[in-house]
């Protein structure tokens, strides 16, 4: 009678089973859930380990076709290399401290590559250094993900597991991009971030290239009737150089009317890769040391600053350069011309092609070879997509 009154009459044993099932469900569901998440996380860690291992093999193969035990051990040991940021409790002088650490890090990379590949030519060495940096970045990413997976295993903490699971699609996407970038840079081919140096080399024309700072190429050329100092990281080896110091040196020796920076910039989802935007300020990423040097000199001398950016995703910036990025040059050139209209005839301007010079040389011939490589790669990818669609239809 009681069961009938509360609506649980009839097969009362089925209700007991249902209640028992719900109790068991609430007791064991979190464990089942964390087991499912752990399976996905462990699979992702294995994939990251595989990518990291492949990236390391690519670097080793570029250094030596048949690396011996000494070379293998040296590269494996160097993958654990790290740089500690300077203390920032007292911000005064932090830029010089960071500059010192960055230059120390560069010297260490130079020394290591000279030791493992002494007979390699200079440009190839620079490409190997960039490949090493990419492989080390992927290795570090893999270690961080593996670290949190091991913590989840020990603590059985479902909250940490869910947070990591939500981040995994972005982590995996970035890992694949770093892998492609490592393979591209170590072979001395252009990446998306090479847009700035590519623009600078196009502006060089057939003029004789000089050096203004370590790793920085410069040409003094007339553009739209204005006397322009065009600078970029020397190529075609992968370099970033020290453009801030170069700008500082030029500005201290010449009366500069305007500075224009050209760089790749992260786009928002929905924006078109290769679209161009204009603004003011220093278009330059990285730790901020070189940017700080430029900002200091423009403030001191009251120099106006323009920036031109070509939009791409963070992944596209480190992956092989896309045709849509290369084809943005005419629009970039128009933006530079609009900026130069604000400068009087024969006044001096600095144009900085910011970015990684991987695959982008300092001459017309080298830049044409780079453009050909980008176009051929685009055609191959397009043909692969067509073949894939055809197979799916069949």
- Structural class of the helix and strand makeup? alpha/beta
Taking pLDDT < 50 over at least 5 consecutive residues as the criterion, the unreliable ranges are: none
Average predicted local confidence, pLDDT: 89
Class of the largest domain in CATH?
Answer: Alpha Beta
Strand order in the largest sheet: 1-2-3-7-4-6-5
According to DSSP, the number of beta strands is: 7
In percent, how much strand structure appears in the residues? Answer: 5-15%
The helix/strand series, from N terminus to C terminus, equals HHHHHHHEEEHEEHEHHHEH
Helix content: 55-70%
Distance between the termini: 66 Å
- Put simply, the count of helices is 13
Name of the CATH architecture of the largest domain = 3-Layer(aba) Sandwich
CATH topology of the largest domain: Rossmann fold
Notes on the protein architecture:
This protein has about 400 residues and is α/β, with parallel strands linked by helices. It is about 60% helix and about 15% strand. It has 13 helices and 7 strands. A 7-stranded mixed sheet has the order 1-2-3-7-4-6-5. The longest helix is centred in the first third of the chain and has 52 residues. It is elongated and about 95 Å long.
Summarize the structure.
This protein has 394 residues and is of the alpha/beta class. 60% of the residues lie in helices and 13% in strands.
How does the SSE layout of this entry go?
Blueprint: H1 2-5, H2 12-63, H3 69-78, H4 94-116, H5 122-155, H6 158-186, H7 195-204, E1 210-213, E2 216-223, E3 226-233, H8 243-253, E4 256-266, E5 276-280, H9 289-301, E6 305-312, H10 314-318, H11 323-326, H12 329-340, E7 348-353, H13 364-393
Parallel strand pairs: 3-7, 4-6, 4-7
Antiparallel strand pairs: 1-2, 2-3, 5-6
Helix pairs in contact: 2-5, 2-6, 4-5, 5-6, 8-9
């Amino acid at each position: 009678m009681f069961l009938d009154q509360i609506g649980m009459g009839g097969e009362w044993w089925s209700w007991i089973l249902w209640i028992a099932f719900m109790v068991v469900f609430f007791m064991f569901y979190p464990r089942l859930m964390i087991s499912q998440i752990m399976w996905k996380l462990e699979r992702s860690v294995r994939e990251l380990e595989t990518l990291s291992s492949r990236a390391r093999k690519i670097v080793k193969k570029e250094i030596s076709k048949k690396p011996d035990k000494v070379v293998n051990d040296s590269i494996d040991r160097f993958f654990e290399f790290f740089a500690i940021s300077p203390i920032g409790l007292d911000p005064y002088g932090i830029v010089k401290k960071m500059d010192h650490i960055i230059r120390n890090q560069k010297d260490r990379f130079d020394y290591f590559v000279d030791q493992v590949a002494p007979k390699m030519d200079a440009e190839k060495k620079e490409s190997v250094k960039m490949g090493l940096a990419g492989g080390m970045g992927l290795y570090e990413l893999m270690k961080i993900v593996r670290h949190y997976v091991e913590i989840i295993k020990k603590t059985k903490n479902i909250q940490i597991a869910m947070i990591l699971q939500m981040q995994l699609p972005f982590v995996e996407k970035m890992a694949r991009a770093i892998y492609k970038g490592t393979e591209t840079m170590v072979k001395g081919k252009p990446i998306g971030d090479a847009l700035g140096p590519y623009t600078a080399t196009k502006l060089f024309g057939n003029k004789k290239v000089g050096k203004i700072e370590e790793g920085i190429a410069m040409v003094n050329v007339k553009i739209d009737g204005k006397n322009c100092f065009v600078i970029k990281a020397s190529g075609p080896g992968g370099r970033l150089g020290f453009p801030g110091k170069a700008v500082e040196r030029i500005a201290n020796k010449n009366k500069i009317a305007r500075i224009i920076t050209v760089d790749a910039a992260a786009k928002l989802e929905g924006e078109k890769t290769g679209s161009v935007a204009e603004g003011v300020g220093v278009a330059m990423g990285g730790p901020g040391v070189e940017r700080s040097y430029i900002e200091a000199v423009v403030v001191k001398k009251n120099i106006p600053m323009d920036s031109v950016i070509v939009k791409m995703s963070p992944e596209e910036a480190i992956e092989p350069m896309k045709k849509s990025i290369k084809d943005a040059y005419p629009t970039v050139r128009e933006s530079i011309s609009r900026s130069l209209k604000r400068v009087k005839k024969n006044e001096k301007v600095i144009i900085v092609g910011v970015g990684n010079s991987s695959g982008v040389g300092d001459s017309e011939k080298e830049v044409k070879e780079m453009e050909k490589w980008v176009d051929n790669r685009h055609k191959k990818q397009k043909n692969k997509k067509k073949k894939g669609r055809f197979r799916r239809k069949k």
